[in-house]
Design a protein that fits this description.
The chain contains three helices and six strands. The protein is of the alpha+beta class. The chain folds into two domains: about 1-40, N-terminal domain of TfIIb (Single Sheet), CATH 2.20.25; about 40-139, 2-Layer Sandwich (GMP Synthetase, Chain A, domain 3), CATH 3.30.300. The strands form two sheets. The chain has a three-stranded antiparallel sheet with strand order 1-2-3, with no helix packed on it. Strands 4-5-6 form a three-stranded mixed sheet, covered by helices on one side. Pfam families: OsmC. It comes from Methylomonas paludis. This is OsmC family protein.
């Protein structure tokens, strides 16, 4: 896996993935940025959410569970010292489906957290306290 980060100006950068997709990252104005993109640490949080959501949907669909939607809300805390690393991250999955089994969703969330989500496992090994919960919504 490869990526390239190109500085634009101030604290603005364009990141391009090895698969050819680009994203703008920036800092807040009080740090020299123009606030035109997500912060780099937000990218890590988004990556964790995307990785976990991918796993949960993949597991449910492979199990032929009638999932119709997934929204994952993440909240994170960072330490007050430099480097300001994440100390806690919580993922709340809102899974929608028709007659969707609570047990199937619970299993998918657990498998993602403990076995499949590379981002979650990596951050956990780095000392970040990661927690998960979910709700099943009929629809």
């Amino acid at each position: 896996m490869q990526a390239t980060i190109k500085w634009l100006d101030g604290r603005s950068f364009v990141g391009e993935s090895g698969s050819g997709h680009a994203v703008v990252m920036d800092g807040p104005p009080d740090h020299g940025g123009r606030n035109i993109g997500v912060r780099p640490m937000e990218m890590i949080l988004l990556g964790l959410g995307g990785c976990s959501s991918f796993d949960v949907i993949d597991i449910l669909e492979k199990g032929r569970h009638p999932v119709t939607g997934c929204t994952t809300e993440l909240s994170a805390e960072r330490v007050d010292t430099v480097p300001s690393v994440f100390s806690k991250i919580h993922l709340h999955f809102k899974i929608t489906g028709k007659n969707l089994s609570v047990g199937a969703v619970e299993r998918a969330v657990k498998l993602s957290a403990e076995k499949y989500c590379s981002a979650s496992i990596m951050l956990g090994k780095a000392g970040v306290e990661i927690s998960h919960d979910f709700e099943v919504i009929e629809g």
